[in-house]
Automatic annotation (TrEMBL):
GO biological process entries: homoserine metabolic process; methionine biosynthetic process
Signal peptide bounds: none
Protein name per the record: Homoserine O-acetyltransferase
Key words, A-Z: Acyltransferase, Amino-acid biosynthesis, Cytoplasm, Methionine biosynthesis, Transferase
Organism: Carboxydocella sporoproducens DSM 16521
Catalytic residue positions: 147 (nucleophile), 312, 345
């Protein structure tokens, strides 16, 4: 059992892309492996929407589950801690230690709530850069992430092209398309329509738990696929309720599955963070304030691997393929690989054998 201790770096007066200013920013992060003397073995792992900096190992012997990407991170694993110094940082706006809407406002000590400014993925990456600079790191061997983490990885390569040597973007687009924005908006409306949301000022109460649960139920549908739902549930019914089969208490198994995941998120995540992070995803467009969309890919210097998932309905494979197509058009080194899976978008958290093989092949080429 590998025990990991979360770390925190704080800095002040952080100006956001919107022009707003955060007087104080905390960033929580975890590291795995040993930083080389030359500081040239750094891998940054970027987490997804409701993820955290806890990517691998355990916080205590009592912890039941390891970090969210533990099958890939560790001694002798794909992201080998015998070779690499791996850093996973909690994103700005989250609720796992980094500054977000549940954090105390410096003026009065009460939670920011909706006083927290709107943030972008560029803001998240620029905040993480402050930690990297604090650690004295000037070169990053690899940045890797899936979903929202893949969006961060793309921004790392564009914001710091002379620092990032290699990039792996998994199941993520270079800009958010209308269907994904629509999914996010329905989730936000579920939260904001809950009477317990109280315009975001629900602290220290339980908050809009029903709205957040519904938002997660919707999200869970987008993370899976028609094939995975059919294979796992079919039309199987849950146990018969006391008032019989023909009642609204009767559930199909897929319904109980969605309710379970909705309630599970409520236990560990802040509703306002969900609002801010999905909004940040909506703003994601690597060409915004930079120029023409197709031409921006010429600015990515990192050797790039883009991985799609054949059954992904949230970010379909054409969105990953267009990244590679546009990079190749400008003679940038980019490769596309695809995971075959019934599991949809969540395959990057499930199909470790396939994903590991693809990543291993890339690392063997760029960091032998």
């Amino acid at each position: 059992m590998v025990l990991v201790i979360p770390q925190k770096y704080s800095f002040s007066n952080f100006r956001l892309e919107s022009g707003a200013n955060l007087p104080l920013v905390d960033i929580v992060y975890e590291t795995y492996g040993t930083l080389s003397r030359a500081k040239d073995n750094v891998v940054i792992v970027c987490h997804a929407l409701t993820g955290s900096a806890h990517a691998a190992g355990y916080h205590s012997p009592q912890e039941k589950m390891p970090g969210w990407w533990d099958p890939l991170i560790g001694p002798g694993k794909v992201l080998d801690t015998n070779r690499f110094f791996i850093i996973c940082l909690n994103i700005l706006g989250s609720c796992y230690g980094s500054t977000g809407p549940a954090s105390p406002h410096p003026d009065d000590g009460t939670p920011y709530a909706m006083r927290f400014p709107v943030i972008t993925i560029r803001d998240m990456v620029r905040a993480h850069f402050q930690v990297i600079k604090h650690l004295g790191i000037e070169k990053i061997r690899l940045v890797i992430g899936g979903s929202l983490g893949g969006m961060q990885a793309l921004e790392w390569a564009l914001l710091y092209p002379d620092m990032v040597e290699n990039l792996i973007c998994i199941a993520a687009p270079a800009r958010l398309y209308p269907q994904a924005i629509a999914f996010n908006e329905v989730g936000r409306q579920a939260i904001m329509s809950d009477p317990e949301w109280r315009q975001g000022n629900y602290y220290p109460g339980k908050g809009p738990v029903n709205g957040l649960a519904i938002a997660r139920m919707l999200g869970t549908i987008t993370y899976r696929s028609d094939l995975s739902m059919n294979l796992r549930f079919g039309r199987k019914s849950a146990p018969l309720p006391p008032n019989g089969y023909y009642s609204f208490d009767q559930k199909f198994e897929v319904e109980t599955y969605l309710h379970y995941h909705g309630q599970a998120l409520v236990q560990r995540f802040d509703a306002n963070s969900y609002l801010y992070l999905t909004k940040a995803m909506d703003y994601h467009d690597i060409s915004f304030n930079r120029g023409k969309y197709e031409e921006i890919f010429a600015d990515i210097k990192a050797k790039t691997l883009v991985i799609g998932i054949d059954t992904d309905i949230l970010f379909p494979t054409y969105q990953q393929q267009e990244i590679v197509k546009n990079m190749v058009k400008y003679y940038r080194p980019a490769y596309y690989r695809e995971i075959t899976s019934p599991h949809g978008h969540d395959a990057f958290l499930i199909e470790y054998k396939q994903l590991g093989k693809i990543i291993n092949e890339f690392i063997a080429e760029v960091a032998p």
